[in-house]
Amino acid sequence: MSESIYELFQAHIRAETPVALATIIEGPGVGAKLLVVRGGTNEDVTGSLGHPELDRVVGRDTAGELEAGRTGVRHYGPEGQATPEDLIDTPTVSVFIESFSPAPQMWIFGAVDFTAALGRVAKVLGYRVLVLDAREIFATKRRFPMADEVIVTWPTPIFERSGHTLGPRDAVCILTHDPKFDIPAIQGALATSVGYIGVMGSRKTHDKRLARLADIGVSAPEVLQRIMSPIGLDLGGRTPEETAIAICAEIISLRTGHSATSLKHTEGSIHS
Amino acid sequence: MREILDDIDRWRRQAKKVAIARVINIEGSGPRDPGAAMAVNEDGEVAGSVSGGCVEGAVVGEALALIADNAPGRMVSFGYSDDEAFAVGLTCGGIIRLYIEQLDW
Question: Are A9 and A23 a contacting pair, CB within 8 Å?
Answer without folding.
Answer: no
